[in-house]
Amino acid sequence: MDLVEDLAAVRRRWQEMAGTPVTPVIGVGVLASYTIDPVLPYLGTALHDAGLPASFTTGPYNQIVQQCLDDTSVMAAARPDVLVVAPRFEELGDELLTVVDAAMAAARRWGSFLVLVLPAVPEERVFGHLDDGRAAGTAATAHEVRETIRAELAGRPDAWVVDAEQAVRAAGTGKAHHPAMFRFAKIPYTEPVFAELGAALAGVLRAVHGVTPRVVVVDGESADALGEPLRWLRESGARLVFRQGQEPVSELAEAEGVPAGSAALLRLGAKPAAWRDELVRSGLLDRLPPPETAPRRARREVQKTVSLTDFVAGLNVEVDLRPVGPDSAAKVVEVVSRAKDFTLGTEALDLAQDREVFAVHVRDKFGEYGISGAVGITGEGVVDVFSLSCVVLGKGVEDVVLQQLREKHGDIVFRHRRTAHNQITAGFLADAGARIEEIT
After folding, report:
1. pLDDT in tens, 75-91
2. Taking a C-beta distance cutoff of 8 angstroms, is the pair 13, 66 a contact?
3. 10 Å Cβ neighbour count for 393?
4. What are the start-end ranges of the H helices in 71-213?
5. Contact by Cβ (8 Å): 105, 115
6. What pLDDT is recorded for position 362?
7. Average per-residue pLDDT in the chain?
8. What is the rounded CA–CA span in Å between residue 11 and residue 3?
9. What is the per-residue pLDDT for 431?
């Protein structure tokens, strides 16, 4: 099979596994500044094959800091064994170090092992062809921040780094990025990048939580013939099995009581040096080094973790409600139809009905988000449309919209229907003391 078919096969396996209940061994929480869900099939199947079936909790898009600082967040409720945090320069810029501080603080509170996905260097350069030679250029700034983050986590017994740059390089920089999917669904990378990233994350988690023994199947050799390679293999902690026939490695692994993913085959005639390279690439014998042996680098002065209130205030969010006109109608209808997490559950936006409809325009220090939501008020003064795009959640936008509605319309009523996704809206309205008309 070619690469496309291989990746498709993994995704099919993941779908099949979802229909087969398995008791998870570890809980994994995933937070990212982009839509990271495509990594789950590759990470999930790799962990399953290593004898570490996992349950996953994925936080909302681009809300890493908010999820880490808010003790009522989705991730705080999950308290995962492993917290994977994957920021990108493109979304967070100079907030990256704040992300690291917030993630470390959250992992300590929740007792989670933190895996920080070191962001890849952005493809676009601020200064074009002259960027590489500038101290303030994109490349120089990105490398400095990357190494600061690496130094921040070096030697910690409760954290590790996985480098997204390696995944991008493995896929090939020309084939790694997916601009169309990013515009449509905030998915910046192609499937090969997510596959590489999933494999790297699984390798770390296997080293952290892998309590099953590793088996090396030696093809056709005897112990006496191996000599030095045999000593090296035994010192690595591997269990050796000598295969005389053509038994499948998976069957030999099963006979030894280990998952198939915890066994590797070394073929007759391979040079010992090649064996070592092959095993290193497989990650089968990976072990995290003791903390005291980790490289020591100059560490930045760690700032006190910013509060959630201070973080949101520092975003300099601006919200503007504008009446919907012919030029914005189509976009508003699209935003309302796609909103899932922050809605009233009653949205069926018909602009011809007797209601006022406002488009929610949002911008912050990172840029202009355009139309990011909508509010509809009936002639009886009932709000039956209140939708916000996930890209602006966690920025305090809902608070500003509610305040503006109250200033203009007074003590309004919100018509709300509970769905599988919109609990966040009900909680927000209740906390704000809003009048709610529950419907079924």
Report:
1. 999 999 999 999 999 88
2. no
3. 21
4. 74-78, 89-92, 96-110, 138-153, 164-171, 173-176, 179-185, 191-209
5. no
6. 92
7. 83
8. 13
9. 83
User: Rg of the Cα trace of the chain?
Assistant: 26
Those residues with Cβ within 8 angstroms of residue 438's Cβ, 6 or more apart along the chain or in another chain: 416, 417, 418
Number of Cβ atoms within 10 Å of the Cβ of 239 = 16
The first and second tokens of residue 57, run together, are: 């909790």
Res 176: pLDDT? 93
pLDDT tens digit string along 230-276?
666 666 666 777 787 788 888 887 887 777 766 777 664 556 666 66
Of 85, 15, 23, 93, nearest to 51 by C-alpha is: 23
Output the six-digit token pair for 142: 């990105």
What DSSP string runs through 249-291? HHHHHHHTTS-GGGEEEE-TT--HHHHHHHHHHHTTT--PPPG
Residue 172 has pLDDT above 50, yes or no: yes
Residue type, 367: G
The b-or-e profile of 165-203 (16+ CB within 10 A means b, else e) is: eebbeebeeeebbbeeeeeeebbbbbbbbbbbbbbbbbb
Q: Please answer whether residues 321 and 358 qualify as being in contact, where contact means their C-beta atoms are separated by less than 8 angstroms.
A: yes
Q: What is this structure's pTM?
A: 0.73
123: left (phi over 0), alpha (psi -120 to 50) or beta: alpha
